[in-house]
Amino acid sequence: MTYISAALFIIGTELTRGVIADKHWQVLASQLTQLGYRVDRMVLVPDDGTIGEVLQECIDTCDIVILTGGLGPTSDDLTRSIVARMANVPLVRDQATFDALYARIGERIWGANEQQTMIPQGFAAIPNPYGTAAGFRGIIPEGDREIVCIAMPGPPREMDPMFFDQVLPYLAQLIGHDDFARSEYSTFLIPEAKLDELCRQATFNGLQWGTRFQDLKISLYLVGGDDQERVEMAKRLESLVGPSLLVEGDVMPAQLLTDLLVARGETISCAESCTSGFIAKLLTDQSGSSAWFYGGAVTYANEAKMAMLGVNEETLQIHGAVSEACVLEMAEGMLNRSNTDWALSVSGIAGPDGGSNEKPVGTVWFGFASKHRSSMAVKVQLTSYGRDSVRRKASVVALILASQYIKGACLLDTVKKWQYI
Amino acid sequence: MTYISAALFIIGTELTRGVIADKHWQVLASQLTQLGYRVDRMVLVPDDGTIGEVLQECIDTCDIVILTGGLGPTSDDLTRSIVARMANVPLVRDQATFDALYARIGERIWGANEQQTMIPQGFAAIPNPYGTAAGFRGIIPEGDREIVCIAMPGPPREMDPMFFDQVLPYLAQLIGHDDFARSEYSTFLIPEAKLDELCRQATFNGLQWGTRFQDLKISLYLVGGDDQERVEMAKRLESLVGPSLLVEGDVMPAQLLTDLLVARGETISCAESCTSGFIAKLLTDQSGSSAWFYGGAVTYANEAKMAMLGVNEETLQIHGAVSEACVLEMAEGMLNRSNTDWALSVSGIAGPDGGSNEKPVGTVWFGFASKHRSSMAVKVQLTSYGRDSVRRKASVVALILASQYIKGACLLDTVKKWQYI
């Protein structure tokens, strides 16, 4: 059987009530289209009894049905039993899924979570490293046709990696892309629409791409061609966006810095004003972070900058808190008080209020001090899409620049080449 | 005929190919839900011949079908002729629409734009002040049922005003808009599956509910009944989960604390170990936070606790960093160094490593100190679903307990009554 026509089937009452917005459609539709599938319908239904009827319509007309949602532990999460009914098989426990979940949550598995380890008999479980509900894929016979049915959990942080790592390669194989190959990159600080536009400029020899927005980075998948072609496209892209904003692999911004510190056996501390603890939080997201992280000062008020870091009152009066002089005193104060190898500091205008002509919202100063290198400060003007976006971007910039500082780079040069932050 | 069940039907090949993201679903779904309609399916199809077939399925099962897209001037924009065929009427020119468009574009109307002035006979045109395609609404007879069919253009800048100004009032009238009511609550620290289970226990008189997971809280919507019944259900729920974990309205955990501080004109500082800056970040998410937030110390390493907060070395040696004695010294040290009205501290085992039989992963101590009240410390044992979940929950607990401390509550009593955190 040739598989071409695909239906996307998304389940969630919170979606049909308009309480939350769907995040999957575009990612799934664009990836399927790039592989050569024709997406003939996308259907969104509430978590209720009508699922079966609408799903039957998809099965009647399409070769592949991809479902997301309806795999949670609550009573209205019906996907697995409806797919089993369509395939005319019972639900059975997938032992590997059960064992993996038991290893994580122990006796709490009994009750609602246990049913999340059940899949339709004859289907293959798809492991879910980021949640409790396994996905599954298998065949629903329909007359002389064999419909491929794939079910994934609804939350994007669970579905995205499951789709890209486990489902997409399978779909590529199914449609005959023997040469399906892809490389993953991580990009920082570049807006998704801009990244797409730049990919159109940088592509060649029919290379395709897909992007996935993930918290503090955007993953970029280059698809097709050979290894060398994908590397060449990545190089072209990097020359368009500027240094350090595109790296190979699945890398969170904090890892740029912590991998370096671990390799060198060194430690860091941070003094934060506008990011107010968020950099410290990112530096301790991984277990074992006491190896590289000492601690930090969140000096939101000017009095805190003076009391906790020894910033001079005159500096604040003459230059203001968002200034080269202030971030240098913050970083040096932090270094002296902490006895770490490296210290970073941040002070900026997060907005939405507090900007001026001279220092508009998005103006952020970064300071760095060290036992190993002379102190350094650099200013970045971030495009503001709101307070949260300025604070998150400033945190990412601080992490990238700190790793460049440790490597001995000239921060002014780096920042000057950034095109689209 | 009673109109309750609605289908949203969106047409556009650029959507099913994933080239652009849909912008209508959530707006339409939430508005319809608020009016009291039940959105039973949302379907997205390409601009091709299959539209009729899928539309027929919607007509077979729903009372109202709202279409967007497929009204443009290009040859693959088929909506109007398919609706006319379903209603078994010819397409006719709507003279008012023609005249309005002629007044704007003159002789250019002849050709592709002329067909945009055609609507199914017997339907009412819906003027489009922002584009060339008129919308329309009318009845599709289906046996003894009369399906309401509404078609709007796809571009958001045309559809949005048409929907809000002309379609929404019509839909409100159609459903009577009288017995529709709901209340929103915010819940903290209760797993979604457990909340659903508790709602089943607490409901009465046919009250319905819905939940929405949002970062650090879960919104709970109680639907139906009268105001008093919804308040009663909320009270029952609160008695099941424990105090302070369910509040009226759309409230983020940090607001519990910051609203209180603003009302009192007071300030806070925080000393964080395991949450490592995340509480400071949450307390500054809102603009204007310098009114209530001074700053904080992120004392991840033991040396940082001593150097930055004056915690005694003996305290750390005898009791460890995760102890009543340590969080009390942290909170008091923070208060003394900051001159704020209130100070909070947190120290716990975030995991996944570092737990012991005595202090398993999820053990977190919270300390509070103030000019206005004697110092207090309390231990909470959080159910661990991983490092990130422990740190996020600990941050929410700190914010809730700090607001209780300021209000003069007995924190030990509060914590003892929490059932499912």
Automatic annotation (TrEMBL), chains A, B:
Coiled coil: none annotated. Belongs to the CinA family. PANTHER family: NICOTINAMIDE-NUCLEOTIDE AMIDOHYDROLASE PNCC, NMN AMIDOHYDROLASE-LIKE PROTEIN YFAY. Residues 7-173 form the MoaB/Mog domain. InterPro entries: CinA, CinA-like_C, CinA_C, Competence-induced_CinA, MoaB/Mog-like_dom_sf, MoaB/Mog_dom. This is CinA-like protein.
